[in-house]
Amino acid sequence: MKENLVWKKEEKIIKKRFTRKVNIKIIGMSDVHGRVLPWNYAADEEDNSGSYAQISTYVKKLRKNNKNVLLMEVGDAIQDNWIEYFANDKRHPIPQILNYMKCDIFVPGNHEFNFGMPILTNILKDMKAKKLLANLFYNDKNKNNFNLSKDKKRYLDATTIIEEDGVKIGIIGLSTPMSQKFEEDTGFLKDFHFVPAISETKEQIKNLKKRGANAIVVVAHMGIDNENSIAETGVRDLANAVPEIDVILAGHMHQNVSKNIINGVLITEPHRYGTVVSEIDLKFNINGKKVELLDKDSKTVSVAKEEADKVVEKIYKPYHDRLRKIADEKIGVVLNDMVPQGKICGVSISFLKDTGMSSFITDVEKYYSKAEVVSFSYDYENLKLNKGEIKRKDIVYNYRYTGGDVTVFEMTGAQLKKYMEWSADYFDTIKKGDKNYRYNEERANLKYVTFDIFGGVKYKIDLRNPKGQKIINLTLENGKKITPEMKIKVGMNFYRFEQLIKKDGIFEEEDIKMLWSSKDEIGSESGTIQNMMIDYIKKVKNGVIDGKSHDNWEIIGL
Fold this sequence. Notes:
The chain contains 15 helices and 29 strands. It is α/β, with parallel strands linked by helices. The longest helix is centred in the middle third of the chain and has 18 residues, at 310-327.
């Protein structure tokens, strides 16, 4: 009896001696979109809100004080902020930057596919990080000419295990299957297909567990909720179906999600443009060969106050200098201020009425497309272009969507009116006592602005009226009344059209004929609105535009 008690006491001492705690910290980046340095190349000015250079400084500090730090990139790194100018460079800057930052995991986002698979392969092969993408496969009959995986059926490996301090972290990479839809017109993904994320994740977890993984982390270029109401395009579906996942590091939807627990799965998303990082803390207990996850937590951390890493600045300097030179290229001259500054009833003037800028953009769309009515949307409210020189940076600053196109559809007057009412509902109907106009909360929280401005028509948006009745005094620009049955050529962004025809969209059940596409007829680059604006100033207007508003529309009510 005494011997048993002594043995149990000694056993407890031995267990205590061999029991230890391990903390692993995961830093997540996503949707940085070319913000390598704290610089906005469209505005050609410093922007300290976020960048890889600032994230690098923050991560260095963490590594000084923490033994086990993993750095993961969730995609959309090589597009926007003019970094696309380097797509064809033999040595792309992003691998150089991420290699210096000692990035451990890279998962491609939808914008990584924007330039074609040969270009993406050239970029990825220079990355030291483990590249993962579990749900993208080659089609059976296609040759895998661009393969960076040991599995010849895949473009990239599905998973990896990183061992830190005796703990094995199993990592699965996923990307939004919407990429297939986004790249339909380019054909860049014609040799590939996406498989359902849930079934593939379940299969990969089995494999990782067999290999001894102590925790499962999914790195997914997908938002929390389904995109366009399509199942398995958001990680909420994944978390609800696969509770064996410990952590999901999400991206894509540009949301700042510090911590969200769904079905026991911890989810975080690091907003956009390198402004914040997701910081995940995993605490383990190790007793001999037994490894137990004791606790998991996450938060998002702003890097706005961090200094830019000098080494990142040095690496990017040749690229930085090239972009600033491009930004400063003179396009032409404008004779008047194009955008009145200030706000009325809480909303910038550019969102309240026709300005020189909105008139100019719709003129460009109408000229090249020959459509009777056209539409576009701004990405944000802080527009500006004063009388004087127009430089390339001015064009890009005011119309941000690099891939924006004009596609012409044949619509009835009734369909056009329905589309315009949908746009007007970006604003809520005025309530008694309102002193400011209000954006619809649901619409304002979407990834992109969904308030479209129309050219070729005259109209008012009366926010005193209820939903579906806000558009009043609608006529064609020549004063001709628009009747419900009349046929109208309407030019709009193809991305917007896809939004409207999707499930629960305003045109879900309607047959609308496509007539023309700027990217098909003019070219994938030349046919973008940005490049058409430049071409219009240089060649059509011989370098001089007046910049005056047509005064075709305005918002009224207050």
